Amino acid sequence: MRKMTEQFLKEAFAGESQAHMKYAIFAEEAEKKGLKNLANLFRAISYAEYVHAKNHFNVLRLLGAMPDNIQQCIDGENFEVQEMYPVYNETAKLQGEKDAERSTRYALEAEKIHEEMYKKAKQLVEEGKDYPAKKISICSVCGHTVEGDAPDKCPVCGASKSAFKDFEV
Fold this sequence. Notes:
Blueprint: H1 3-32, H2 36-59, H3 66-94, H4 98-126, E1 135-139, E2 145-147, E3 164-168
Antiparallel strand pairs: 1-2, 1-3
Helix pairs in contact: 1-2, 3-4
């Protein structure tokens, strides 16, 4: 693939990915306000943006063997833990941006867990095994991630057990 086309597809993938997430967030907000049809519109178009992002991803041939896919996850999480979020968090502190400081701290704490989970997953997949956790619980306030049942209180943000969303097989 020619470099300019490749760069444009990478930028389109990033843009479509952001639109997908933004519209999903808008859908949640519309749902909270009782605007069910508008929420549905946001969800539908969010899905269309996901399809566009997935198409660009596939054309870029970014999908690899499962261990390679997991390694991409490890690399991304490691970058966030070691470089990105520490710098973003310190900058927010320096500039007195309390909301940004909290948001980046929440993300940093969750990304540390994600990196370890992906490392474990890669090792297991390379051994021909599936990931053992049948249930993963995520705090909807800060993203804190646990295998199994949620704690009574989130150790990062203090949210109650009811704030956790469960993902089960």
